[in-house]
Amino acid sequence: MTEMPPEPRYDVIAIGNAIVDVMAPCRDELIEELGLNRGGMTLVDAARAEELYAAMGPAREISGGSAANTLAGMAMLGAECAFIGQVADDQLGAVFQHDIRAVGIDYDTPARAGDPPTARCLIFVTPDGERTMNTFLGASQFLPPAALDDAVIASAGILYLEGYLWDPEEPRRAMRRAIEVAREAGRKVAFTASESFVIDRHGADFRALMNEGQIDILFVNEHELASLTGENDFETGVARVSAKVPVLVATRSARGAIAIAHGERAEVAAEPVARVVDTTGAGDLFAAGFLTGYARGEGLERCLRMGAICAAEIIGHYGARPEADLAALVEEKLG
Amino acid sequence: MTEMPPEPRYDVIAIGNAIVDVMAPCRDELIEELGLNRGGMTLVDAARAEELYAAMGPAREISGGSAANTLAGMAMLGAECAFIGQVADDQLGAVFQHDIRAVGIDYDTPARAGDPPTARCLIFVTPDGERTMNTFLGASQFLPPAALDDAVIASAGILYLEGYLWDPEEPRRAMRRAIEVAREAGRKVAFTASESFVIDRHGADFRALMNEGQIDILFVNEHELASLTGENDFETGVARVSAKVPVLVATRSARGAIAIAHGERAEVAAEPVARVVDTTGAGDLFAAGFLTGYARGEGLERCLRMGAICAAEIIGHYGARPEADLAALVEEKLG
Which of A199, A314, A335, B60 could form a disulfide with A227 if both were Cys (CB 3.0 to 4.6 A apart)? Predict the structure, then answer.
């Protein structure tokens, strides 16, 4: 592409899992009793989901899904957003649809009839605020390439892809096609690695995409960075990946985050939080803040600060959808 | 009855609406724009529920229902509880079932097949923490008398009835029968008036029940007391009703509550709250604290204090199901 692409209609379009989170606090001991992967995300089948739900305390349902959470944050920060993801034609699907549209995100993927039901993520939150996620993917894994409207994808400045969704086959094909469409249209492709296990299973794909220059912006945490590079040393891993992707954002939980963009490096400390209630969505909202700043052409450090502010908001309460007015928070802290 | 009834298996059995709350913060102006009854509970049909949901911001789903909320509080305080209420055989019904059983309440009412779906209450929470409720009763209003097991009702020390459920015909018949069964077994009948509109429509029934000595414990707020007696003066209303019911508990929001039991009077101030986030369930949890104390044979003032502590917990966060350990809270404050 040598021509400039036309002014984007959306700042970002994301493809991700369409999930409702089912969250409850739990004793530390329960994580062991149930044999859960503390702090991680585990895919579960319907029977295991039933078993875990039965063992869970009284819960609340809040829409989730990694990329959808990121978009909700971006929309609250004023970005124009569209989402693609598969729900079933059931009550939880209606909840997901409502919540994502209610923040002003365009979301038109038709609900899928019949089984399986809408995806849910059973989230056990221990007293330290750590979330342990168990995802029943349900309808979410049947997102067909046909659900993608090329013209809409081409009309977004950034295509944002969720690594979790790389695992099931149908959505992976859909995402590969979306990458082609976006690149053809001269748009940026952003990717969040999501979880080490995804990289363990599909690292070759991700490395190939990076080597081919298909990824413009990559979000990883330090564990994912290590999985991706096979390097336990953080800085070595950063150097390795930043040679391949124009913009790398690496988060380190309480130790803040760094970004390297076209050779420039910036770092930010974690934003102080009065009490860590529930870490669900911290990475998703970090990406929301960063990407909104990036889409607006803000400086790298400000993008990181926006990410840190959004992440701090989300871990101060239950659920991975923002409760506070993120735009006002950013304005208050950064002016 | 002159014989002593056998030791109860349950401290309380409640009959109430089986509802999932759908809650979202909202601007003050939206209440007027949508023509809502600010601070009240309004019954809505399916079409109006759709319309209001579409106008609502991103929401969260938390099990609710007045009597069910009260039981959840009582169970957390250590009471043995059973619940009767009608859900549909759908995802929100499964959510309600899960949440009530997860606090240790026995709940065996079979889910109802087909339409209508499980009840939901669309709750708009204004910045002052006031909740404006719009209830689509769905399956809840089809609780059949056949769902009542006489032996189970007779095995509970207290039968607790929710005024809201007096409105639809089938549950009203079920509740009338439950009162007969409980009285025949020498048990107490407790009743919460729920809302002025219920009294406006069914005040004659309630007054008849009181006059016949069918109600042992009555929970009202000051508005309901005024509707019930036609007396705007609080003390006059209290005197009028307490002549008819052995135990009267009258709550006055921020002005605390009073109880008159067998001629003895006690008062309590409202418990301080750092920030009123959402008043949904304040009355329900007041009843939970009071009734748990009463079932244990605590003194009247302590029962009121337990009510005030539980009410303060619930209004400090979203949702009408307790988040803190209520038993620990009561222990901490009252020893």
Answer: A199
Q: Which of A56, A100, A319 sits opposite B102 (nearest CB)?
A: A56
Q: Where are the domains of chain B?
A: 10-17+66-92+141-334
Whether A63 and chain B come into contact, CB under 8 Å, resolves to yes
CATH of B10-17+66-92+141-334, one of 3.40.1280.10, 3.50.50.60, 3.40.1740.10, 3.40.1190.20: 3.40.1190.20
**Which of A53, A91, A98 has its CB closest to that of B59?**
A98
Which candidate in B23, B89, B98 is best for mutational testing of the A interface (most A CBs within 10 A)?
B98
Residue type, A14: A
- Strand blocks (E) in chain A: 10-15, 19-25, 41-43, 60-63, 81-84, 106-107, 119-125, 131-136, 156-162, 188-192, 217-221, 247-251, 257-261, 264-268
CA-to-CA separations, A96 to A90, A92, A226, B117, B172, in angstroms, rounded: 10, 6, 33, 18, 35
Band the pLDDT of B129: cuts 50, 70, 90: very high
CB nearest to A91's CB, from B59, B90, B102? B90
CATH class of segment(s) A10-16+65-111+141-334? alpha beta
pTM of the model: 0.96
Average pLDDT over residues B261-273: 95
- Flag whether pLDDT at B236 surpasses 90: yes
Could you tell me the pLDDT band of residue A1, with boundaries at 50, 70 and 90?
very low
- ipTM value > 0.90: yes
